[in-house]
Records
---
Amino acid sequence: MENVKVENRLQGSMPKIGIRPVIDGRRGGIRESLEDVTMDMAVTVARFLTDHLKHSNGLDVECVIADTCIGGVAEAALAAEKFARAGVGVTITVTPSWCYPTETMDTDPHMPKAIWGFNGTERPGAVYLAAALSAHNQKGLPAFSIYGKDVQDMGDNSIPEDVQAKLLQFAKAGLAVATMRGKSYLSLGSVSMGIAGCIVDENFFQNYLGMRNEYVDMSEFVRRMDRGIYDQDEFEKALGWTKENCQIGHDVNPPHLTRTDEQKQGDWETVVKMTLIARDMMVGNPKLAQMGYGEEALGRNAIAAGFQGQRAWTDHFPNGDFMEAILTSSFDWNGIREPFMLATENDTLNGITMLFGHLLTDAAQIFADVRTYWSPDAVKRVTGHQLTGTAANGIIHLINSGPAALDGTGRQEKDGKPAMKPFWEITQDEVKQCLEATQWCPAVDFFRGGGYSTDYTTREGMPVTMARINLIKGLGPVLQLAEGYTVELPDDVHDKLDQRSNPTWPTTWFVPNITGEGVFKDVYTVMNNWGSNHGALSYGHIGGDLLTLASMLRIPVCMHNVPEDRVFRPSTWTAFGVMEPTGADFRACANFGPLYR
């Protein structure tokens, strides 16, 4: 992976997956006959997970297997101690046989947990699964049930496809939970333009995510720029790369508001410095310690952040669009690397939604305004064009003032189709294409301090998921999501619609998958029921993964179009209303409460 940087930028080791082989503890022939097959099952699961999963930073996922099979409480305690020392953040219990549930179960209340009970007839692994889930539910420790639909023979070390899918969906979501725990969200500034999502709700971060909140006034950017508290050599490198690779777009400002060439050059220098400084504040920079700034060198251990910008900053300084777009992309002047999660306008809730998507997909995210629903009739009236194909029932214009990751151009590819890929899969040619598909337009006049905004149009045909967390008084956090596809319009049609908004900003034309019922009966109804002005867009149909992650954190999902066969939640959720799963989700989350309360 030439010029690809794989590293853990944050303090704390990466969480591991603990594999718990449980066994019938009766000696005298029963346990002895099961030792090898049970441990083999654990080894097979560990090998499968390490072969198929990476952390979002590109590091390999590690599994830790208990030293012995777990036949009772003493061995369960030994396994828990080993896992604690090893940094295990999620556990999977496996067994082909009957065991004693309350004596062998994982009782850590903060540990996402699943049980694979082998579907075989020689030994009742499925009976243990049912009994163990019952014990977990009775004790208020929700666990995920993994049970293959087809009977296997004892000693069959293969993992059926349906079991594989559940193992991966559970493990990836569980690792996301463990990765967030103990990390920071960094607010760079405060509330932007009265947007409620900017208001930091510390109870949400602490009780639901296990995260802490850090705050820095935007004047810290000025201090560091004025005093040179950034890597001077990297600044020169970054500025040179920017001039070489960032194409200047059209300046739409009227002559009396157009900035001079000298001002524009100064803007480039400022926005590049802002990018370095924001990154350093998030994750630190050892070069600053060499310069005599030991405190600044440590950073804030921020796994996500947000920049207020408007208006306290942008009325006087260049906007944060370049900083946000470059940091959230999978590459910069130092090469290809993990994208940062940085929300525009310090929308903390959209920033965390971006973090969810990144941890589940390993890829960059698109931050956007959920700006406009264009009906087929409205498009025809304004442009004369009849929407067809995927767009036939209308489109949603996702657009924002610049911070959308350059990966969102769709110039990366998987199997010959546009994609947003984990950074370690991106090629240098794809980086070049993303940059060539992007123009940097001088900021529009309401950014009185100048700056540059990204302008691109996302390629069509990408499966994507739009999501958003909202906070509701008396209820708490609620997640909504919509799976769908990106589409493109003929250039002249796009231009006419784009000009009615802001042609200097990046556009993604989005069409949600419609079911014909409820809030997904048509495209308009999806737009009409979106809970905020912002949304985060992830590559792939990851709604099922988001549902799994949300259930681990006890965040109910009020709106989704995920097919039933991809909905995977703890087994006890059905006890709260199997005939109405959305209501059951709300009741289960309220009953068990936030994960870290």
---
Amino acid sequence: MSRATRLLPFLSWPRPDAALLRGEAMAGLTVGLMVIPQGVAYAALAGMPLITGIYASLLPALIAVLFSASPRLSVGPTALTCLLVSASLSGLAEPGSAQWITLAVWLALLSGLLQIALGFARFGWLLNLVNSPVLMAFTQAAAVLIIASQLPALLGFAAWDALLTQPRIHWPSMAFGLGSLALLVLARRWRPGFPTVLTVVVVSAALSYALGFEARGGTVIGALPQGLPALYWPGWPGWATLGHLVVPTLVITLVSFLETASSAKVDNGQRGQRWDQDQDLIGQGLAKMASGLTGAFPTSSSFSRSALNLYAGARTGWATVFSVVVVLLALVFFVPMLHHVPMAVLAAIVLVAVIGLIKPRAFTYLWRLSRVEAVIAGITFAVTVLAAPRLYWGVLAGVLMALSHFLYLRLHPRIIEVGLHPDGSLRDRHLWKLPPLAPDLYALRMDAALDFATANGLERAIAEHIAAHPATRHVMLIAHPINWIDATGAEVFGRLREQLDDRRIELHLVGIKLPVEQVLRAAGHLTDSPRLHLYRTEADALRVTDALSAATDDPT
């Protein structure tokens, strides 16, 4: 791939013909009809003016498809990112106010700049700091909070605290909300490719107008500005306020790109290509910048819309171009049709999008795989819910616990004494109740690199065995699992050799890998000695152990 194609991925798109454009147009129409009502609903979730949800579905989607390595992803507003925006700005400004919009734009610009910097620095691997259990738990906790935030609008009451003090329900709103929710759930199951979201929006707007829903106290979208978005440059919020946005920026960057990863891996897997995460970081970062400069909030890749794009037959980025055209036409000509849509319907749209994120069985499945990781996931879930609206504490707590667990495992490598299993392999002698390979021989294997984190563990295991078995005359290290060594590992190995030489104990190294061997030879720890023996294979070593056993049985 040329440098120009790598930096400008759209140059590698296939030249369109009539057949390709027909298929891409249908896929783009399907996604475009879905993203319009979703964008409005997600803007409400983010506490932003509703029109910004459509703005975030326009230029950001076009920029992302032009500069990302995964052209079939649908970029725009997503429920999780919008919830993070709302949670991050809570307490800093009033939702929907000019200050709120300014801070949301700063979140988009800062997270966009960070993603672009990470992409150009080829630092996409840093996103691996969040493992799957932490992301799963955080996503489910966020879904619970999203559902809780949408239930008042869905069920026709003002807020949870108002329900307790003044229990008044607007029954027409509840009817619109529950009816829309039922239709969307059933349609998702039976007709996933049908533009049900748009159909529900149009029908509910017609019913709302015909029944005089707004005049009877129902809450509707109301008037939205028509026309293209203007360039928006946010005012300077001050260093103190900007400092409050640092952690939310990091979390939004992390979570939104992990959303992208879940879709991008599917897209690139279907195309048989390697995922270029760094280029997608750049494309997604540019999309966030474009969203901020049009007065909107941070965007991300929508898993549901990306899946719909693939389901509708999208093959290239041309499908996204067509969906942008659909959004553009709606923004210019059809925005007034949204005036009478009840807010309860928007709540139903959000609920349907996030209900699928709640998977309690994921915790039980994780418990069967790893109880430690299940506990980490459970704590992440609890912290996220209890720390609301400061959701980022859940991610930070989960990442810290996961890294601590990883560090603990690195500092406590698996070191076992091996014996000859009846199937011919060397296995854990104590687990399988196997005899020693030979009398006065300690044969061990460490399943880890030999570095600063593990070297002392290896030294301690050998020292403790020799202290408990003073008659030991041979130590055999099965070294093929050791694929890397650092200066500390080489130093400890050298000290170990000296200690064994002082006790006149012979060291047998089995299957040492070339990179490890080169480091040890450069350090001078593999010099020829009658007490050092190297074997390329376990079979060679087993022949020596047989000889040692025979010599012990027949001392003459």
---
Amino acid sequence: MTAAGAAVAVLLALLPLAVHNAYFINGMILVFIYGTAAEAWNLLGGYAGQLSFGHAVFFGLGAYTSTMLLARAGISPWLGIWAAAGLAAAVSLVVGLPTFRLRRHYFALATLALAELVRVLFLNWNLVGAAVGLYLPVRLMNQSWAMIWNTKTPYYYIALVLFGAACGAGAWVGRVRLGLYLRAIDEDEDAAAALGIPALRYKLLMMGASAALTALAGSVFAQYVLYIDPSTVLDPLRSVLFAIMALFGGRGTVAGPAIGAGFLILLSQYLGGALGGFGRGYDYVVYGLLIMWIAAYERRGLLGLVRRLRPRPTAAPGPEVRPATHGADTRGPRPAPALLLEVAGLAKRFGGLRALDGVDLEVRRGEIVGILGPNGAGKSTLFDCITGYLPASGGRIVLHRAGGPRLLAGRPPHWIAQQGLARTFQLIRVFPGLTVLEHLLIGQEHRGESIAAALRPSPPAVRDRAEGLLRFVGLEAHRNAPAAALSYGQQKLLAFAMALVRHPPLMLLDEPVAGVNLTVVERLKDYILAQNDAGTTFLVIEHNMDALMALADRLYFMANGRVVVEGPPEAIQQSDEALNLYYGR
């Protein structure tokens, strides 16, 4: 905890001793309860970028579960709230498995529909009191085991402790490697998968944790108000409110949801009291205006606005020239030609269009194999099929590794990446909001990585590897700069370094030198050759024929979705068929 956080915690703990205004204390209790729900929402919607409008379901489940256990089974809420948290987490995982197939606004709409479905179900379900709702047994007033008092102070401290725990959970996630993975998933889930990050696993983890915390908030809310019904605890507007609190303050931060909860709850309480009946429905107007402001102006809320106004670290306009230490004519003997990647009869159809038409290709250990061809030849489609981003319509893709061959067709991208296959994309896929060093930390090995390991910081060996690669590509001076501050050429170098962190045996590079100046072209060629000498095999798509001829041991020339010519660079240069297809003669 920072010194500022500790000071705020002490101040809040001492507040009831100095302030005896019941109206204000009531507002603070609601701030803590809703702030807990907003911090819980932030774990899923802030860090992982999954914008849920269904968290009222978990809030309501928490309220109903602990209430029914106390009223009908005599089970203390001190135990009941944990049963409620477990139930909400289990329900969230059942809900998350199908809905996480959806992205962005489709996921948000699905969760909103779920919230309304559950509300209607509870309105008509006699077991939970239907529309009448449930009362907590007030005969147990001032019995601590029942968590019912006729004063506000005990509720204040319970809600404060819960809010502190929620803030602590958010701070913890932000400090361990899981937080980096979630931020990468938020910014570009496909690029995260290319690094081997199992997005579904971590989204489900955050869904369960978020639901459990929200249920705890709902349970404490029920104990405080002593009456619940579907219109109170399952109102879809509560889901919107939790999201607005986090979005308004700043999602993906600890302070953001706390700021949003304090502002909106106290505004609602005091402005509603001042306006009386005239102000009914004004909160909907405020929420709508906030959504419009966030969507149109600053997606990171108030804290994002503050950060935007601060001076941002900048990167140098371009990398310095370094003398080449490798060249195509000084690479030495090639390693033993053991087969590493085998593609046989690969086909990909989009309706009646055959993007790939029976492609056969082999890559042997230690080689640099190039793929050349005109636009529309199917080169990037081939890479997408090999790495799992597109399902093949036919054929076989085999990665030969120690322990036996791996069949890649039909496997998800993160699984393929974990087998030792790294790739870069034709259009640069970096994470604009992450620093240069953070890019390399998220590129660490994910095969066999447990959830417990993800809940710890990156090990020193990974940090050392990351620092070494930054020095290797000349970006060490920009380690703390966001990727958005780098030049195009520097982003190319960053994407290359990020893919190298795991020591991949095979790297697929999609136009690595396209669009950069000659200085960066020479540097990238030098780095590829150096890594190849260190044992990395490369399969490279490139339109820059001079660069590819200088790098490749063998070339495949593709046109119209099939391999036309295969052989050493000299043979391709002398092939009339390849030249005619490439230059459109």
---
Amino acid sequence: MSALTVSSVSKAFGPQHVLNEVGFEVLEGQKVGLVGQNGTGKSTLLNIIYGLEKPDLGEIKIPRETTMGYMTQESCLDPNSTLLESVSAPTGKLGSLAKRVAYLEKKMEQPLSPEALEEISRDYAQALEDFAAFGGYGHPARAEGVLERLGLEKRTYNTKIADLSGGERTKARLARIVMEAEDADLLILDEPTNHLDIETTVWLEDYLTSYKGSALIVSHDRYMLDKLVTKVVEIEATRSTSYSGNYSTFLEKKALELENRSKRYNKQQKEIKRQQEMIEFMHRIYSFSSLHKTQQKKLDRMEKVEKPENHVRELGIDFASAQKSGKDTIDAIGVTKKYGQVPIIGKCDFRIEKGEKVGLIGPNGSGKTTLVKMIMGEEKPTSGLIKVSKGVTIGYYSQEQDGLIKDNTVVQEMRKHRKDAEEEWVRNFLARFFFSGESVHKKVFQLSGGERARLAIAKLLISPHNFLILDEPTNYLDIYAKASMEQALADYQGTVLVISHDRAMLDAVVNRIFEVRDGALKTYTGNYSDYIRAKGKTTLSSGGDTYEVTKKYTDWTTGKKYVKGQVLKISGAELEGHRFAIDNGFLTKRGGDSGKRKKP
């Protein structure tokens, strides 16, 4: 049965057509990924589905009994409300009932005739009964349970959102997503992992894996889409195309589809050329005959294969070749950092050598940015020493783009670093980052998050560096721009230190991992997947069921060996990866069901 049907939806803003006959279906219990470049209308479509905007044409069909939860990109938490008030505010059906109760209460405060008061009192009693039946009075208690599961201390429950730390606000937003899900049959999520660290993202993945309802997810997190969705809908050039499978399957199918269309187009073009040559020959040799006209009519009536176009715009990222620097780029010796009496980073030692690409990971608030500031010389260690080799030139990308001056135009921001450059050269350079025409004269404060990110990357590229420090460089970039960033960093000959929660990028780019946790820094050789294997688990999530190894075995996909008696925590998201071991008795679930598939 369908939980959501989008039928021939079209939407235009003035002369600009954003959506054109978009259509797809989400089945009950199905999780669907909605992808496309920034600006292709994904958020507009979600607003139409939720009823915040109306389509110009087409319709949205949702069963009457279905309740929806909608989480937008921007946090909906009121900064002046307490944490518990914000998270426990009723949503979906319960939210409608709460509004009904409040409306009737206000109505009863007005002067009414005895008959009208009696009628409203009956409605009010029924509304209270419905509110209680849907768990309205237990809603704050449920919210407390969610906050506790996310590790938020009770002292924060009565703290205003504005006074929470960055990490606490992130978890508050995540708690709100969970409450939306628990009150909804159909969950709509617009970039749910924005600003989440890796651990919290994996926690959310595990939660959504076990979520029984349907979900439509807009996300640029390729790991999440691969784990969760069984269908991908792409919005491209105002139209939609549906693909069964996860995100990786979508990429394969789309590439194959483009290749097949190219082959059909090229084959037909050869045939058209052959026939045109034959027509010209007939006309030249048999000029008195009408044969060539007959043949031309056949050719004109031929159904033409459209030339396939890849509408994905690729960012023109090409990091300059690294200048020469010493062999040892960075040396940290006995480094510690405190703010007052509060320890941030305990004693740590590390070396980053020329040409290495290091991923810096850890929970929000663990001290990653502090470590970067010490490397850049913006802050001094409390003790110890950080030595930067002679000849190192550092290029820095801030996730907040705080190096941009809000009242400057795009061109002015670029000219700050290349005062001698002609405006035509600057405009041509900016075109590689999708700034063209009048958009180069937009002021920074007028730019979207994605536009600011592209401008900050362009500024980084306009000057040569041999050591790049990047703080969440793929935030605000769409999936396709992220791929461009990955390729550029993989090809870069210099040294890279990147703070990121983008696991796909960490897999594609880095060859070492620095993990900052509880004030300590540990180093691991390899990319993110290697780091996970070295940690002895396939996710950072603390959720899932406990399994015990009852017979030693080797996982041939990862090469990892498991010994008898070893205890594993396996989440729902990673269960299939251990399916062979479970089905064959190598792994047994503790405390009940073994986890084996039941026979039909």
